[in-house]
Design a protein that fits this description.
Structural class of chain A: alpha/beta
Number of helices of chain A: 18
Structural class of chain B: mainly alpha
Strand order of the largest sheet of chain B: 1-2
Shape of chain A: globular
Helix content of chain A: 40-55%
Order of helices and strands of chain B: HHEEHHHHHHHHHHHH
Radius of gyration of chain B: 27 Å
Helix content of chain B: over 70%
Strand content of chain A: 5-15%
Oligomer: heterodimer
Distance between the termini of chain A: 54 Å
Number of strands of chain A: 11
Largest sheet of chain A: 9 strands, mixed
Radius of gyration of chain A: 25 Å
Chain lengths: 449, 331
Amino acid sequence: MRVRARSRRTLLTTVTAVGAAALLLAGCAQDPEEGPGKGTPATGKSGGAAQTTLTVGVFGAFGLQEAGLYDEYMAQNPGIRIEQTSIERNENYYPQLLTHLGTGSGLADIQAVEVNNIAEITATQADKLVDLGKAPGVDKAAYLPWKWAQGTASAAKGGATVGLGTDIGPQGICYRKDLFEAAGLPSDRAAVGALWAGDWNKYLEAGKAYKAKAGEGKAFVDSASGVMAAVTGSSAQRFYDEQGKVVYKTNPAVRGAFDLAASFATDGLSAKLQQFTPGWDQGFSNGSFATVSCPAWMLGYIQDKAGPAGKDKWDVAQAPKPSNWGGSFLVVPKAGKHAEEAAKLAAWLTAPAQQAKLFEKRGSFPSASAAYKLPAVSGAQHAYFGGAPIGEIFSKAAEGVPVTVVGPKDLVIAQNLADIGMLQVDQKGRSPQEGWEAAVKAIDNALDQ
Amino acid sequence: MTDETAVLSPSTVGPERPAAEGGGRGRPGQVWRSRRYRWDLRWSPYAFVAPFFLFFAAFGLFPLLYTGWAALHQVELTDPDSMTWVGLRNFTRLWDDEFFWNALRNTVTIGLLSTVPQLAIALGLAHLLNYRLRGSAFFRVAVLTPYATSVAAATLVFVLLFGRDYGMVNWALSAVGFEAVDWQNGTFASQLAVSTIVIWRWTGYNALIYLAAMQAVPAELYESAALDGASRWQQFLHVTVPSLRPTIFFTCVVSTIGATQLFGEPLLFNGGAGATGGSDHQFQTLGLYLYEQGWVNLHLGRASAIAWAMFLILLLIAGAARLLRGRKDSR
């Protein structure tokens, strides 16, 4: 069908249409230079000083903003504005960070990195990141040595410290006092800790004792994979050896942790839940299990999910062995426009005093050991967990954590061991050997480039 | 505008319009004007469709070709600039990749489990909506609401409904004396559950397409069928369905494409783990496997090869459908 043609007007429209299309394309090709700070002028007047907007990219509820640290820094430095962007899940956040680092665009001035990804970052991206070890205000001695080592590239890669540690995840065991009492076990946190002190196998024995008394329908742990994460977190060597070779298949520590955790499933001590799923959340509020291995950051999670009804029922005891699960780092991409200011901010955010504040407000446990002596940490008690001295419990765990060898694909290996191998044993009733083989097959496929 | 001629007749607007050339031999201004006029007629339609093609080139064609290029290399997301040529290795290894075949199998079964009931229900719904109803606009909008909800929101609700311990579906099953089903872990159960989400979201959309086609069926056909004593059901079977055949074919094609690319529902159905599609990969679709290779394991080359394999599978299906349709038409 043809429409009425009017030559002059159509020519004009043509030019406009082509021009508009070209403009649009050009607009799309351009890198967003301001990032999330768009809309606010990057430079403006504030107390006579030119204003700089720094952006921070994080995943999940990182807590820096919620703890009021940005506001405090902005009050101290009138020339700085801080804006944060957050992506809910690290699985979505991390690939995006890698593509942005690859193209050198779309990056925030400061980016957060999860501990399972830090080895890959230091091994493959160190040349794109600022050496924060030399940033003003950074004191190496304030950090736990193993945390500092994780954020530092190997000597072959230049040896730069590109990641400054924020929090870590030293673990305790959270348990239900009322369920322990009903099963005839001690409920005082010192006595509970003594039940299994020094040996993860004693934790299994305690579970068997619990099951014998508690009867049907009451599980001892939430999931077998939670136990596995806790046990592997207490060994120095896990999936890689010091030379960077993948050794998870032959490392007795990994297989031992797998088999021990699988026993919880085969002995019927597990509630057969998958962590961080809606069913798991409901398990907290319904009291379907008596214990869960909990890193410091999980206390708030339990409080959220178990709700007011769980108050004074939950408590936290020392774990069988010092173990770490999770934690994060801050890195500063060289491609950022304000790399120098950003390094200063990253140093400030991860300094002991600020880490102590983050712990006080959000429960993220400091990776700066210098913070453990500060009253905000050493005197910390958690009202929801029966006033447990969590500062003391977690400091003790943190200082006992071995210097863990981290590797670039730790996350992929840990995830497949848990979500394929252990889940098959826990939820599908497969034998530990079958679960292990399925996990190995999935991991080999994942590691094969 | 007064000096312009409004051309209405199609015969005079053709690009090779002789009258325009004849007029070109007059004054220089006239020559210029008529030449411009010819260019306009010839090129402006291209300019009008250009934006789409420019955008398609930038966001459709370029990624397609680049993915094809990347599929022939070993390339990691950690360093996308360094590519090592491996030829067809990424493709050949798919033959021996049991996870790929598993994903393909799951995609087919979930596709069938969702598409067949979905289209059948949509056809029935459209037939009901085609009746003279009070407030028909309300019902038509209502069937479309599932389509308008986001995959994420819908799936999260379904995950709760299909929960093993406290889910409503299991609660209802146990209320009528059945045993609780572990929806996430059973191979068939999980695929059925994922299909339910797809059915719920897309049935209304297809129903409206069918409804639109039904309204184009001449009322006389129904009247004469009614005079011949055909019941409502017979009318549906012998008048509505045959008239709708091209529309049904269209929805089949669109649903097949959708089923091949199924991604959001199985991803979110697996609450914590993400792209594995369950502990036994029991509901890992091709889309999910592609995502796992590319964005979890960071192997861009392997992921690109899967993407191209999916593309080729779709082409195969399209070819088969064309053959089938050609035979039907010639009948």
